[in-house]
Amino acid sequence: GNGADYKVELFCTELSNVAEKTKPMPAEFINAEGNGVTDAFIEYAMPLTGGLPKTAYLGNYPRI
Predict the structure, then answer these.
(1) pTM above 0.85, yes or no
(2) Are the CB atoms for 60 and 54 separated by under 8 Å?
(3) Does residue 15 sit in helix, strand or coil?
């Protein structure tokens, strides 16, 4: 799919309608090391999430 192909619908429902209705992530979305995601997942997720948050690292700061 493409960004224009996605839409969102928000509604309330009984928990029993959605509980335990999960699907495993397709293998092509998991990187070869098994510890991250592929570009295919990022392409899939971006329209759904509206963009992923930027991550920051504190590694450049001195330890106290």
Answers:
(1) no
(2) no
(3) helix
